[in-house]
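Notes continue from the previous slide.

Worked example: a multi-chain complex. Inputs as given:
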Amino acid sequence: MKGLVIAAGDGTRLHPYTKKKCKALVPLLGLSLVERVILSAKEAGIKEFVIVSGYEGSLLKERIGDGTSYGVKIEWVHNPDWEEGNGVSVFKARDHFESEERFVLMMCDHMFDPDNLRLLLQRKDKKNILCVDKKIDEVFDLDDATKVLVEGDKIVEIGKGLKKFNAIDCGMFLCSYSLFESLEKSIRENKDSLSDGVEVLIDKNEMRACDVKGGFWADIDTPKSLKFVKMRLIQSLPNPREGIISRKINRKVSLQITKYLSSTSLTPNQISFLSFLVGLAAAVLFGLGRFPWVLYAGLLAQFSSILDGVDGEVARLKLIKSNYGDFIDSIFDRYVDGFIILGMTFGVYFVSHNLWVWIIGWIALVGASLSSFYKEKYKVATGKTYISQKYDGWLRYIFAGRDSRLFLIMLGGVLNQVLVVLCIIALTSNVLAIYRFFSFRRFLD
Amino acid sequence: MKGLVIAAGDGTRLHPYTKKKCKALVPLLGLSLVERVILSAKEAGIKEFVIVSGYEGSLLKERIGDGTSYGVKIEWVHNPDWEEGNGVSVFKARDHFESEERFVLMMCDHMFDPDNLRLLLQRKDKKNILCVDKKIDEVFDLDDATKVLVEGDKIVEIGKGLKKFNAIDCGMFLCSYSLFESLEKSIRENKDSLSDGVEVLIDKNEMRACDVKGGFWADIDTPKSLKFVKMRLIQSLPNPREGIISRKINRKVSLQITKYLSSTSLTPNQISFLSFLVGLAAAVLFGLGRFPWVLYAGLLAQFSSILDGVDGEVARLKLIKSNYGDFIDSIFDRYVDGFIILGMTFGVYFVSHNLWVWIIGWIALVGASLSSFYKEKYKVATGKTYISQKYDGWLRYIFAGRDSRLFLIMLGGVLNQVLVVLCIIALTSNVLAIYRFFSFRRFLD
């Protein structure tokens, strides 16, 4: 199915962000608005787009191109009459669609969670369907929003000035060609907004609503709304299933770094590599064995752990998550784990010359590497991600996850108690490994 | 769907195996014939059985019970007239089936690959369907087999004495209740074999054939055929996708051990544990550092590697494969790998007092543990088993699989060159890890 994106407006209310460029190119955390719309739709399965440009259209077309760099196909339509209502921009695209074809209509200034579009695409009825949000209280800048009155899933009225309404227009439609016919009719009557065309469809009993069920969406019209969306996107990044150290400590720092790095050209894979290098540096400093080197080593280990969250956050924020990215991240983690524990062991031995240190370090390494091995085993067996909080009983409190382990390692360095931490890791990681050895039976019968 | 198993015969031709017990209880590699039939059918999805006993029926019922120990449900029918034709035994079970019910009819002396039954169960036509083998040349003891003439998938004639035939009866049917009605008719006419009942169905155009497409099956009637099946089952155990050392060396020994252990009560999980203990013993001996201890250590490491194949072979041979069994096997492997490399490192250091040995050993351990981690990652991404021969390019020849690694370790011990082998493992396992780091992109985009 194709997506039709309206990107013709000048966005005067977004000044100064729209100085010398159209609204679609306003940057938002490393991507322009139109890029966010394209990539969000791509996540939900839309791979072909028709984009209608208007104000400063040639700059827009030059920047976005034919879609190759986003892994999609883009056709362009220019609307020189972009100063008229937005219904005209939609109407100009009609030659790019067949009369039987259904398509998704999106606005370049309406951000959305790909799940909203997935919900919409599940609808099999052949009417025109508008995404609406029934949680009216949570809508930003309600005064300016387009209101909708819905009965059942039928749209009865639409308009900015509605007195009686129970939903808000999210700016995304699943359409049939009849939308163009309705627009033709309303434009002929000098009513040239998209809402005018939609009203024609309402009169013909052809408009339906699809509630986004609390899914995120936002209309960006003013610097204030831009700021609001920025905050919401950042807030949505943390994964509630991460370990306690990740959630309570690392995220506070990593979100700031992510916010900063998202507007650079650094890719998530490059950030993974950076985290790897920082981890290696920590390992080398631990290997020196003495204070204050181990202090620096501990801090670097923790910093590597924080950066280990940033790569994924940037990928999610810029809508470029990939399985390969997850994969190389986890391989880097294995090497960092291995070398940091080696560095700690070497350093302690270097100072103490006690051979037992090697045995302890070794056991810690075997235990730590089993932790990730178990998680993969679980994923193979069930297709899902292992949640320590759910399955490890009270052992979830023994700090054996990777985030907790690196936090302990940091403490070990800062307090100059590296051997103690090595012993703790050797013990807890293997206790957990042995527990899972038996507990996994329930997933595997 | 229920399975009906005919286990009434005395099996005189299998004397002395059938002395004082019925044919169904003749042992074959750790299981009785009827147990093999039950567990093979269970693998294909049949969980409820009706078994018709006859000769020495109470002993049979006592041994097999209600099926709990096999994870299935068994109902019993006794046929005191077991000396009559086998059609009578089938007919006696009729009260255990509804008139609309379809069921699988099996013979306790006909062994089969579960895939044959899976093929049969895929058939949706409502006729009676007989499994047949069209590869006539490969049938053991053709003279004694029941021949079938098939046209299209329709059975035209059946009988031991057929002159013109193009398939052999494999002794397994997908039946409807009409089989009982046909048997009633033929028995009334004093024709009391199952083939007689089948002939009635042929006359009514209700018999179809399902080719097993080369799948293994065998009718066990004589000590000779018992020996043949034993050999075939053992031969079918090796997995052609295993590493070269497993296939060319370990299997030759492990199959002998498997053959022996299958008739003991040792479970596959206990064998995994044994392999683990042998591996630990190898690690301790390597830790002593000097010849001839490292020689013994190397031999034990190789023996552990061989035993590591036996657990799976016994499980497959006794039809008790389980995901949990595979899982604990792989966890034991991780510990054995970790401790053997630790033992080697410790031993070399103990003799040489060169700190670098620890670094080399450590790198070898990280590389070795990544090898299995990659395989799990691949399984998560694709749902399939990673085949080094297929995906690792020429690196498949660098001996980095677990079987090859333990073989190298054995050589290292036997030739008293433990450090050299440690260096090789450190190098090859990490070269492979880095290769896969990039090559996995194709599985993960």
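Summary box: Chain B has a mean pLDDT of 93. Chain B has two domains: 2-232, 239-444.
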